[in-house]
Amino acid sequence: MNAPPDDLVRLPEDPPEGRRHQPDTAVWVLRDGTWRAGVVIASAGPAVTVRFRLGDGGGTGVDTITWPDVAADARTEPDVYLG
After folding, report:
1. Phi-psi bin for 33: left (phi > 0), alpha (psi -120 to 50), beta?
2. Which element (helix H / strand E) includes 70?
3. Per-residue pLDDT tens over the stretch 56-77
């Protein structure tokens, strides 16, 4: 699993309509104090529903979180556990 970059860019709290992430967009998700690889399932207003890696194993979780806990990701290779 890739690690988030040191210059992680958090997404704005209420992004303009045209800048919202579309489904399957790669992101980093802040869960339990750790940035985890994830993908967007849906987004609306200040919230985004994401599927994210629970750790280095194969498990994933799904949660709806607010934008400050989501950061842009530039992964170029798909994560087999995130689909």
Report:
1. left
2. strand 70-72
3. 777 899 999 887 788 777 777 7
